[in-house]
UniProtKB/TrEMBL annotation:
MF GO annotations: 4 iron, 4 sulfur cluster binding; metal ion binding; quinolinate synthetase A activity
Cellular compartment(s): Cytoplasm
Gene3D superfamilies in the record: NadA-like (3.40.50.10800)
Enzyme Commission code(s) on record: 2.5.1.72
Family the UniProt entry places it in: Belongs to the quinolinate synthase family. Type 3 subfamily.
Name recorded for this polypeptide: Quinolinate synthase
Entry keyword set: 4Fe-4S, Cytoplasm, Iron, Iron-sulfur, Metal-binding, Pyridine nucleotide biosynthesis, Transferase
Pathway(s) of this molecule: Cofactor biosynthesis; NAD(+) biosynthesis; quinolinate from iminoaspartate: step 1/1
Gene: nadA
One matching Pfam family: NadA
Cited SUPFAM superfamilies: NadA-like
Keyword set includes 4Fe-4S: yes
Gene Ontology biological process terms from the UniProt entry: 'de novo' NAD+ biosynthetic process from L-aspartate
Annotated residues for binding of [4Fe-4S] cluster: 168, 299, 389
Length: 450
């Protein structure tokens, strides 16, 4: 049978901008729902208020003393999207190789378009290492990511966070005082935390997710522990179990539970540690029997996804392929077809050779960008309500223009630095992670963070 030429009708161009969608929903130009109409306002409207701002984390309690952003000058607040884009381009051109701009997958499209590198937190920290001669690293992400970049960059390089209010509610759920207190209480149960038993194992090995403060990473480094990412969590837990009877995993309970469950650890051996309760809310026997002690923390973005949403996606789109992030609750991960890091999700879509319908359970900025980049597929966010990460959304082109133009004028704004007494053990915990490679996995498969 001779070949037949078929002309496919082009699909309408998809707009990757979540901000454009929110503006259209709030104005009534588009049918849809957003979790907070304040998302249509500039983030500077919330810089003077306590809290994470509108979005997924708006209900979370922000710790006292969290960084606040000073007022952004009016010229940036009142500039149009096109004007800000031109100012950013001009500043980058003037700075040349003196600056590198990093953009996390969850950043708004209007920021990502200016990034020299786009990726997850650890990929971007590694990208910064590829520019040892750059005077400044502008990290368009959240606070713990900028700290990690500072840990891994040269001392003379300035790491800049465009909006100091861009924290992380999950990272804030495990502060250093709470973790130190938990360690002391566990020592009352287990005895000397440095003592090895007949099998050469210590009582507990602390493991922290990359999504944690530098102080927490430093704690882990001092106590023989290690950092993990959402891609290498299993490898890191195997490393920890080779050295300890049990693991204290923080701050995200869901990544810890989902990973340990997949490794065969029974749920009854994974008690939750609530830092507001004595002994985390458990008794001595439960803690003695534990294999993984899960910190009472979570990501408010990924907690929004539900089994009902998956059921609705399957009913409306027979044959849909559901992929969720392992920060989602266990029942959501179990109901999905697959789970994996942000980079896993991206690569799974890129590898699909036939037109496929994907329902994705992760931050909406990444999902919408993937939908625009792969029009041959149908890609949508499991959550029908448009609700971006509250803190990632605090980074706006206005702030990016402000810090870049400051560099042009010789002024470093919003520099993030980690004290040396914290940085040294934190780097040790990161180095342990780098050494804990899966035996047969290429580097690209284990160097991916959330």
């Amino acid at each position: 049978m001779p070949a037949v030429n078929i002309t496919l009708q082009p699909r309408p161009e998809l707009d990757p901008s979540v901000d454009h969608e929110i503006q259209a929903i709030v104005s009534g130009a588009l049918q849809g729902e957003t979790c907070n109409t304040d998302l249509a306002a500039g983030p500077w409207d919330f810089d003077v208020r306590p809290g994470y701002g509108p979005g997924s984390s708006m209900g979370d309690v922000i710790p006292t003393g969290s960084p606040r952003q000073g007022e952004l000058p009016r010229e940036y607040r009142e500039a149009s999207e096109a004007e800000l884009a031109e100012r950013v381009r001009a500043a980058k051109a003037a700075l040349g190789d003196r600056v590198v701009v990093l953009g996390h997958f969850y950043q708004r499209e209007e920021v990502v378009v200016h990034a020299d590198y786009v990726g997850d937190s650890f990929q971007l920290a590694n990208a910064a290492l590829e520019h040892p001669d750059a005077e400044a690293i502008v990290f368009c992400g959240v606070h713990f990511m900028a700290e990690t970049a500072d840990l891994l960059s040269r001392p003379e390089q300035a790491v800049i966070l465009p909006n100091l209010a861009a924290g992380c509610s999950m990272a804030d759920m495990a502060d250093i005082d709470q973790v130190e207190d938990a360690w002391e209480q566990l020592a009352e149960i287990y005895g000397d935390m440095d003592a090895v038993d007949a099998d050469g194992l210590v009582p507990v090995v602390p493991v922290t997710y990359m999504n944690s403060s530098a102080a927490i990473k430093g704690f882990v480094g001092r106590h023989g522990g290690i950092v993990c990412t959402s891609s290498n969590a299993r490898t890191v837990l195997e490393w920890a179990f080779e050295r300890g009877r049990r693991v204290l995993f923080f701050p995200d309970q869901h990544l810890g539970r989902n990973t340990a469950k997949a490794m065969g650890v029974p749920l009854e051996q994974m008690p939750m540690w609530n830092p507001r309760k004595p002994y985390g809310g458990s008794d001595a026997q439960t803690l003695a029997d534990a294999r993984v002690i899960l910190w009472h923390g979570f990501c408010s973005v990924h907690r929004r996804f539900s089994v009902d949403q998956i059921a609705a996606a399957r009913a409306e789109h027979p044959g849909v392929r559901v992929i969720v992030h392992p920060e989602c609750p266990m029942e959501v991960v179990d109901a999905a077809d697959e789970s994996g890091s942000t980079d896993y999700i991206r690569k799974a879509i890129e590898a699909a050779t036939e037109p496929t319908t994907f329902a994705i359970g992760t931050e909406v900025n990444l999902v919408q960008r993937l939908a625009a980049e792969h029009p041959q597929h149908t890609i949508f966010c499991l959550d029908p309500v448009v609700c971006p990460c509250s803190t990632m959304y605090r980074i706006h082109p206005g702030y990016l223009a402000w810090v870049l133009e400051g560099l042009v004028d010789g002024e470093v704004r919003n520099r993030i630095t980690v004290p040396q007494d914290v940085a040294e053990p934190a780097r040790l915990a990161l180095e342990r992670m780098l050494a804990a490679k899966p035996p047969a996995a290429p580097a690209a498969d284990w160097e991916n963070a959330s």
